UniProtKB/TrEMBL annotation:
Region called Disordered, residue ranges: 1-25
Name of one Pfam family that matches: SLH
Species of provenance: Paenibacillus rigui
Residue spans of biased composition, Low complexity class: 1-15
Domain SLH: 123-186
Protein name from the UniProt record: SLH domain-containing protein
Amino acid sequence: MRESSSNLSKQNSQQPKDIRGGEKKVMKKSLSTILSLAMAFSMFSSVAFGEEAKKSSADFSDLKDLDAATKAKFDEMISAGVFDGVKEGTFGLKDKMNRAQFAKVAALIFKLQVDSSLKTSSFTDVKADDPANGYALPYIEAVKKAGITDGYAPGEFNPAGEVTKEQLATFLIRGLNKDAEGKATPGVSDKTVSDWAKGYVALALQLKLLSSGTDGTFGGTSAATRDLLVLGSYEAKQQYKGPAFNGKYAIASLKATDANVLTLQLNGALSEEAAKALKIEVKRDGNAVTSGYTTKWSDDKTTATLTFESKFQDNKFDVTISGVDNIDSAAKTASVTTTPEKITKIDFLTASDTIPLTRDKNDKLIQKVRIDFKATNQYGVKTNLNASNFDIRVNGGTFSNIAGEQAINLTEEEGTERNDRISISIMHQDSGVQVNKIFTVGDESLVSKVEVGDLLNAAGVKIDAIEANSTNNYLDVKAYDQYGFRVEDKNVLNDDVSVNFSDNDLEEGPGTGDRPNDPFVDDVVGDTAADMQIRSTNNEEKEITITVYARGGNSASKTVKVKASKIPATVEFGSYNYTLAEGDQLTGDEDVDKKFYIPLIAKDSKGELLDADDIVTAYADGGKDSKFDIRSTSGLTLGKNGNKNAEIATTGAYKGYLVVSSVDRKGTQSITVSLEDHREVSTTLNISVSDPREADSIKFSATPKKYIVGGTDTEVKYKIYDQNGTEMKYSTDSENDYKVRLTYTGTATSTAGTGEDVYLASKEKSDANNRKVKLSTVSGNTYSADFPLLTAAAVKDTTLDPWDNFFDKSFKFYSTANSPTGTWTLKATLIKVPKKGSNAGKEIELDTLSTTIERIDPNKSENKLTYEAYLDKGVNNTILAADDYYDVNNKGAAQGVTGSTYLYNNYKKLTKEVKLRAKKVNGEEVAVPSGFYNATTGKANSIISVTSNNPLVANIPTSAGNFVAGLEAGTAKISVLFRNAKGDQESKTIDVTTKNEGPAVASIALRKTDKTVDRATINGNTNLYLWSKELAEKITVKDQFGDEVVSEFTPGAPNEELNAADQFLIKANGVTGSQNTNDVLNLNFYISDVTGGDASGVSINNQTGQITFNSTTITGFTVNVIAPSGVTAAFGVTVSN
């Protein structure tokens, strides 16, 4: 009941007091007032009708001096009903136990089947009507059946007889199903133990069921006392695994163990498979219950706890197990009857009958007094009812309920003085249980004891550590006065409690307000008590001891961790699978330099991963504030350009990586990284360094097709590999030069054609009409050309172009439209030319690689070709629905063109080129042309027309008849009409899907990721872009449709074939064919990591990537590009003078 529910005054402060402590004063209250309160409740029993409260050690006077650990064991056994006292208020701790008592205990702890209906025993001396031991008859029969004992003598049990210690040991061992093990255990060497029992006693001691006496002997034949029975049976109960499982699962017991909890126990532990399959079906009053409860199994898979959302009423529950084959059908269902929750006992939890005076000499209220109580239900469990569910009455003050708890805050009335009396009565009307207590008023509170608990956040949630530079941290400090009452008032606590920190990085209090350093603040975590607030003032990882002092002299300490944000607490090397060789050095070429950057994985103490910026910040340029200690063996030089303060890259694509600038000696080398703040944390990477790199083999990087028809080409590329099988783009071999000789031979087998023989030429041109290198043949002659492998030093030669190196250089076999048939062979020979020694200048052949190209006659039956039309660089024939996404139809209409034409003219790379490919009957691919048909020349083997059956979805630009543009989302069938190699017309179709998905950038690749440039080259350069030749050289952006958008070199600069290099990312003034695809991609460019000068000296247009540099001091910066999809790329620039 709530306070207002009774007509009796519960907060009547006008009645006279009964006693004035030690002084003769006029009585303001009469004793009759307090007595009347007691009488008002006298009609109710202190224990609910028909219900008995579960007991604990507190109910027995001879158990009050037990230590806490032993008391907890007694409490568990007493509350479980295994033990009771020998009489009211007395447990009989040192009384000798008899055999009847043991039988009951053994039956309960070993969960034996007890037939309570038995009235006749198999022993002649066990009688149901025996006033002393008759209660034990069913228990005696249960222990006999279980084999724990077979009696004292033939036909006799001797229920009143004593149990010796060695008998107790034996009984417990048998109860644990270890009889055979007890017999087999080597016996103790103890004269106090009978020979027959020595093995049992030895095993009992090993299992710590019992212990020897202080003199080292067991005292086996001496009588066991009740305290030994409690402790021994407690230990046995903890170790008991249940009866030997007979192979069939059965319900051993079903009990209501709380007002909303059923506990189901099986006869054996579930196997892993059975635990997954077993089902529990619940019925309440015959109706299936499928929701409103949860099931939790014990760790040993023997006991299921069913917790219901609502409390029980007068119900019958039937529980059935199923789902596995091996279930005992006779014991698969159990029933239990429940009753509504009843309170059986209410206890005050106050430590003293004296409460502190809470008013000062001016009668001003200092604090309130917290009064806790405990209401126990019929299951011996504390009910979850809170104070508002009880009828609480106070004489001598007022009170307020503490929300959600069985506690009140007592406010002493005005005029309260020392030795006054205050009466509190608590009643639960529905159960008819009440408790009364009269407290004497003592002195004002003096905090005499403090307890330090967990760290909490502002939500009251436990935290493991304090985050550096944080303020909302609270230490759970419980303070108690000289009477044992909890002190919760902020002002009293700040007066009586002080705090000290072992390090100044922690401070107490909120840090703001009128009293910023008062440790206690108004309740934050939600427990009504003032909270101790702690602030961290520095971003450093450490442990700090907090000591809290009570004014009464007591103190308590706690060591807490301060977790620094983004400060490395662990470090390890990331995946690194490259092979290094003596003589390796940074070149500035991304493909080559990948192996010189080693990833670091660092986490802070919260387990959060540090990103590249965090690692660079922690590195602090390798200075005295660096959190990393980086060391390497002498065979490796760390740091860009050997700078020991640049061991970690602070700019560019490899920002946050360890940098190896050169490899100086072969053999096993290592790098070790330790943490300055955690010297115990260290990680080492061992790197096997091989001999200096020497060219060893040559392989195709682009394999040409073996067959070709007239009027087309097929590409071939090569790569060089060293002795370790690693790509060797540049030579670092100081003792040898390397070159590749291409030799081209062949014979035309037909003279019918008037065109030139199939020839090999570089893609690179020397002028507008000529390839720089061309190898052709006349019958029987051999043509060749040599190509040097450039050295690493050549990378820094700004006059060289990417295609000047033979490595991955593009060559093609070309056939004219009327070329004769024939077969030609291309042979690549890798050659070493020593610089020193007897072989200096001599050519040494290292490896060869050959391929043939056959110009076929498509009119011959053996050269029948099967064609396929496809979308170049397509992904599952899916393209962008550009009109849905970018409204190209309306934009095109404004320019007088179709939407597809507008898309091609402005964003060509978002359309797809239709191409052809062909195969011979044996599946070999044949190089065929895919260009658009030229009606003037009548060129065969090319596309005549491309049409769409659904032009609203996909259509063909009028300016490019062999391209497809997506418009609205949907599907379309694209028909391709073309002339095959024989000149006959054929048609093929392509099923196309268009999607209204904005282009999502899947990758951004730069040709270079790092460069050192002369200041004069970029200072004031008005035509400088990220992809300029002076910087990254090329940027390639790919989306989810396979579209590739490329910008290469400074706008207007020539490419390999002396045409204007691609500029499809941004439209450059005066550059024909350039397009502003970034309108759709929305890449964003920005500058970071500026070093050596004012950051304003370098800037970039965030939409076009154009860079402005005007500085005489800046020594480095990073150019970054990021897509809306989150994909990024970075280019590091080092500026040299």
